[in-house]
Design goal:
Helices cover 34% and strands 17% of the residues. It is α/β, with parallel strands linked by helices. The chain folds into two domains: 1-31; 32-249, Rossmann fold (3-Layer(aba) Sandwich).
């Protein structure tokens, strides 16, 4: 009996550590760093809006019409504001960027998520061209939307998105796809072997040397992640540059 209690106690402790780790780095307990907060302030280049209780992070070029719009999902239930640094780089390049929180997501209710994307697109008729996607598992929602609404989007922007489960298969799609990943992704040993067959043959694939899975956002390391060989800022600069080059190459 003591052994059973010991095992149960260990499992509870592990679960607690995972929960604390998640809460710390999703901005729930420690709050946001001054560096992230600085990216959430509007200036003469970028206008920042936070909708509701951090339900959306919206950044647009100040005083100019956006070249196109991007609707991106964060990893897991991460605070959308932790994507402020990379979102600001994209908005500064001329794009309307919307990070859409998954904290309101109802498990398995993709229709509701797709309706949220539709609402954003419909509310901005002046933005004629939209791309969807996101980071890791969050990006699979964008993939699902693009596959079911191919006439509503011009392509996908995917950062380390896991495509090896469910219906997240783009191999038969004609949509332009950008796939960016870090060479130190925690699943890099077989990541592209699994993801590659689910991408279109013409997909643009960009590897970031020394980048890992988490540093597309600024929420800090997670317990299971491999350390990166570059800083979060360096990885986000490269991710944003690859995204802008991809969009520009398509004429946006």
């Amino acid at each position: 009996m003591k052994r059973i209690y010991s095992v149960l106690g260990a499992l509870v402790a592990i679960a607690a550590l995972v929960g604390v780790n998640y809460a710390l780095f999703s901005g729930k307990l420690l709050g946001l760093s001054p560096e992230i907060l600085a990216t959430l302030e509007s200036d003469d280049r970028v206008t920042v809006t936070i909708v509701g209780d951090n339900e959306q992070l919206v950044m647009v070029p100040a005083g100019a019409e956006p070249r196109a719009g991007l609707i991106l999902y964060p990893e897991g239930r991460m605070d959308v504001r932790t994507y402020g640094p990379v979102a600001r780089r994209l908005a500064g390049a001329g794009y309307r960027v919307v990070f859409l929180s998954r904290r309101l997501e109802r498990e398995g209710d993709l229709a509701a998520e797709y309706a949220r994307i539709e609402a954003i697109i419909n509310a901005q008729p002046e933005v004629e061209t939209w791309f969807v996607g996101g980071h890791t598992f969050g990006g699979t929602i964008g993939v699902g939307y693009a596959l079911s609404h191919p006439d509503r989007v011009a392509g996908l922007v995917l950062w380390a998105v896991r495509l090896d489960s469910g219906d997240a298969d783009l191999s038969g799609s004609d949509l332009p796809v950008l796939y960016v990943y870090g060479t130190l992704d925690d699943e890099n040993v077989d990541l592209m072997a699994r993801v590659g067959p689910r991408l279109p043959a013409e997909a643009t694939i960009v590897s970031i040397e020394g980048g890992n899975r988490v540093q597309f956002g600024s929420y800090g390391p997670m317990a299971a992640d491999v350390g990166a060989g570059i800083t979060p800022e360096e990885q986000q600069v490269q991710a944003a540059a690859a995204t802008v080059e991809f969009l520009t190459g398509l004429g946006y």
